Amino acid sequence: MSAKPLAIVLASGGMDSCVTIAMAAKSYELALLHVNYGQRTQDRELHAFTAIADHYEVPEDRRLVISIEHLAKIGGSSLTDNTIEIPSADPGAVHAASSIPNTYVPFRNANMLSIAVSWAEVLGAEALFIGAVEEDSSGYPDCREEFYVAYQRVIESGTKYERPLKIHTPLIHLAKSEIISQGLELGAPLHLTWSCYRNSDTACGTCESCRLRLRGFEQAGVEDPVEYAW
Q1: pLDDT of 162
Q2: Which of 56, 88, 169, 172 has the fewest CB atoms inside 10 Å of its own CB, making it the most exposed?
């Protein structure tokens, strides 16, 4: 038996969650939660999640895949509604900090966290990791530090859990280039990750998520191992 405590990591299959897994693995045994919410690239993200979980040799009984496709039925996001166009990002500006783009899925992270907390109570996990990034988060309100501080209070007041369950957001104040550097230092399998909002075969290179990723690799001075449409 491992002497390490158990941590649940929200694992989308993207680069930020992959680096978060690598960080958590230093001090914790891993349980990985993947949530399908009706997003366009759902199948591709699940494929990336499985590959990353295999890389870290996470046992099957500590991998949980949940569907919350009610978020697609609710709509309001270009990630879940095919009638809303996913915008192409300006390579220089990527996003305006004062605006929330249409790729924001209303209250998505709160939905995901609630599932993770329920699972943590059952497994007896001591930590909950999520790869939220405030600086490069496209202005999403559920990627802000204050949101996770508030959610920590929700956990403490709304669970029967006797052991302390702590939310960890190790990337919250990092730039994308710093996340990439951390990932490379920890040997995170960045080549297995998927970031594109638009495509499931070859990354488009023009959506906001692709632009953030490409700019991060450029600033880190490293070539992105993912293939792009051009």
Answers
A1: 76
A2: 88
- Separation of alpha carbons 28 and 16, rounded Å: 18
Q: Comparing C-alpha atoms, which of 184, 109, 129 is closest to residue 5?
A: 129
> Alpha-carbon distance 13 to 18, whole Å?
7
Tokens 């366009």 map to which residue? 40
Per-residue confidence (pLDDT) for residue 191, from 0 to 100: 98
Give all domains of the chain, ordered by start, each with its CATH number: 6-88+98-195 (3.40.50.620)
pTM of the predicted model, to two decimals? 0.95
Query: Secondary structure of the chain: what % helix, strand, coil (to 5)?
Result: 40, 10, 50
- Report the C-alpha gap between 54 and 104 in whole angstroms: 29
**φ/ψ of residue 42, rounded to 5:** -55, -50
